[in-house]
Design brief:
- The chain is mainly beta.
- Helices cover 10% and strands 40% of the residues.
- It has two helices and 14 strands.
- Strands 1, 2, 3, 4, 5, 6, 7, 8, 9, 10, 11, 12, 13 and 14 form a 14-stranded mixed beta sheet that branches.
- A hairpin with a 7-residue loop joins strand 7 and strand 8.
- It starts with 18 loop residues before the first helix and ends in a 12-residue tail after the last helix.
């Protein structure tokens, strides 16, 4: 009789992932099930028993979610150029093409496709977050993440953003990216991450923008697994069963 194989998941920096959690993630991936994985006091959102085909729609909502200023229900279409926003104590999970998003409460984001300034004929997916918090996973294409304090250029990766007038928190969860504080190209950092290696805080300093190290906060591996599962993918830090 062949021995069953188990999924190996590297620990989050600074924390050990114990065996029950490792087994839980394996069951999630093997069965195609994304359960109620909102921790830290967030409301649980039950996800579908099997990942649906990629569709540019609102997949789950808690509380008030608006698309272009109109209250939206599950199944509402989301297209490039739309503005998605959430009210207090609200969250939205939605997909646009091969990209997945988890938008936290009191947040507003615009997803658009723009012609590349560097490569004629190439389109760049542009995410603009003026304020609030969003976790995103992207397909293999050029991506531009914009906030009032910094721009991040990435290609086929995942990132978490928090933005307010005083500061910006960015974590390139995995993949390649160039992080540049607005008006301070000398502070740019190019990273190639596997598992949350370089979270950064960007804020105005007395002599100009500052970008400094910070701990990982306010997003989880389980949420990344959930978003990728909607698109039939798994994060690179999870070893798929053979």
């Amino acid at each position: 009789m062949k021995k069953s194989r188990t999924t190996k998941i590297p620990p989050t920096p600074g924390k050990d992932i114990d065996r029950p959690r490792r087994a839980w993630l394996y069951r999630l991936l093997a069965a195609g099930v994304v359960g109620t994985m909102w921790g830290g006091g967030r409301r649980p959102l039950a996800m579908p028993a099997a990942p649906p085909p990629p569709a540019s729609v609102l997949h789950r909502r808690t509380g008030l979610v608006q698309i272009n200023g109109v209250a939206a229900e599950v199944g509402a279409p989301v297209a490039p150029g739309d503005v998605v926003s959430t009210g207090p104590d609200s969250e939205a999970v939605f997909v646009v093409g091969d990209d997945g998003f988890l938008l936290r409460a009191d947040s507003q984001v615009t997803i658009a496709d723009r012609p590349s300034e560097q490569a004629p004929g190439v389109m760049v997916r542009e995410l603009t977050l003026v304020s609030g918090r969003i976790l995103s996973v992207f397909g293999p294409k050029p991506i531009s993440l914009k906030t009032p304090l910094a721009n991040i250029g990435i290609r086929g990766t995942a990132a978490y953003l928090e933005s307010d007038p005083a500061s910006m928190n960015v974590c390139v969860c995995y993949g390649h990216a160039v992080m540049t504080p607005n008006g301070a190209p000398a502070l740019s950092e190019e990273v190639d991450n596997h598992h949350h290696e370089t979270p950064r805080l960007v804020h105005p300093g007395p002599h100009g923008p500052v970008m400094e190290k910070m701990p990982i906060k306010n997003h989880t591996d389980e949420e990344l697994v959930m978003l990728e599962a909607l698109l039939g993918r798994v994060p690179p830090f999870v070893t798929k069963p053979k």
